[in-house]
Amino acid sequence: MAIEEFLIFGIPVSVLALSIFLAYRYAKDRNGKVLGVLGAIWAVFTGWMFVGMEVASGWDGLIYLLGLFCISAPASVGGLIGGIIGWVKKDNERFA
What we know:
The longest helix has 34 residues, at 62-95. The chain is an all-alpha fold. The chain has helices at 3-28, 32-55, 62-95.
């Protein structure tokens, strides 16, 4: 795998898998504090990328756009998927 392919596919898939795992694990344990910290880290990173894009000139903003597409978006989708699945599985365990 060339470095370009890793940057385009490997990093987003790794971030997605890690965020699904972490959100699932902590949502299943109903650990809202850790989920809140993970959400705050995501929000700060996303805000940092938007501010960086705003102040960048020319092609310099491209790295911030890639940060949004390759790290922030997969992390948010993975966090939502993992959190919802973990929360629902915990509810199902209570009634089984």
